[in-house]
Amino acid sequence: MTNLTKEKTIGIIGGGQLGQMMAISAIYMGHKVITLDPDPTCPASQVAEQIVAKYDDRVAIAKLAARSDVLTYEFENVSADALAPYEDKIPQGLDLLRISQNRIFEKEFLIKAGVKVAPYTVINTLEDLNDLDLSKKHVVKTATGGYDGHGQVVVKNIVDWEEARELADLQPCVSEEFVSFLKEISVIISGNGTEFSVFPVCENLHQNNILDKTIMPARISKYLAEEARSMALKIAQTLKLSGTLCVEMFVTNHDILVNEIAPRPHNSGHATIEACDFSQFDLHIRGILGEPLPKVALLSPAVMLQVLGQDLSTAQHFATENPSAHLHLYGKIEAKENRKMGHVTVLTDDCAISL
User: Fold this and answer.
1) Tens of pLDDT along 70-103?
2) What is the pLDDT of residues 133-144, one digit of tens each?
3) What pLDDT score does 216 carry?
4) Most exposed of 18, 20, 49, 199 (fewest Cβ within 10 Å)?
5) How many CB atoms lie within 10 A of CB 66?
6) Predicted confidence (pLDDT) per residue in 163-218, tens digit
């Protein structure tokens, strides 16, 4: 008789769409899920029990930890200090969380892991900013708190430089030399601490600094795809990764540069739900539970289209007119402009497809 995997209770910090999809995978595997999120109507509340509390509420986190066998997080802007007493229940560890919360720590880690990054300067004072070579274009980013283009300025002229000064006057920043890239790609990789499974390379197209479309597999050479996967594997091995990690990269004329890492499933990996035999969420759950990981197979080329608040009715019409489209709506109550409301995945090699 085969022994069934013992049911675990998984506590997820964050109840957004990533937490929702993590929970769905875990529930299908026979596990129980409890999420912690301040919004009682968050997407994960539709599929799992919820503790309604702020992400840094130590009493609520203690309650979640006491009821959970394993803790994980769905995004990086959670309090590492509040989670510290329960680190033995967090297979991802808090080092990875702290690295991904601070661009300065992140750059230092990536160099230590042996992967290439764009040339950069740490900006601790306004004097450091004054030393920048303004004959080159720079991207000045706050060390902490930035997302979807927030907390960063592309410095091309004196007006941009003044805006960058305002950022640097508030907190430490990183100034990266602007990379003239051919493509933006990402590699989703999952681990269980000792073994790792790499997903097909994704090609990402953005609008207004928000992911708009992902093409899987990326339209790059086999050599570049293997190089990108190798770089992601180096990072995962250095971290002794448990769970899923996204490594975002730039493809230039001569190289691949790592831009940043996200210590959890990622928007660019959503197509894995239909396009691969296991999704990024499946392997996140398996990874944090320390279970063996399969080698992922691509079942079909796919295009994932992000659905923002202003796209909601268009996406619903698109899915009606295209029965082969897989529409995922996250159940957010209010459809705000540029708010991620869902995504559509189409199993196709037609990269021009759009909503």
Assistant:
1) 999 999 888 999 999 999 999 999 999 999 999 9
2) 777 788 888 888
3) 98
4) 49
5) 10
6) 788 887 778 888 888 888 999 999 999 999 999 999 999 999 999 889 999 999 99
The pTM is what? 0.93
Domains and CATH numbers, the chain: 9-90 (3.40.50.20), 119-177 (3.30.1490.20), 183-299 (3.30.470.20)
Sign of CA dihedral 300, 305, 307, 312: negative
Closest CA to 97 of 67, 120, 77: 77
The CA–CA distances, whole Å, from 35 to 10, 43, 62, 66 equal 8, 10, 13, 13
Structure tokens at 341: 């409301």
Pairing mode, strands 70-73 and 9-13:
parallel
Contacts (Cβ under 8 Å, ≥6 apart) of 258: 110, 115, 116, 117, 231, 235, 247, 248, 249
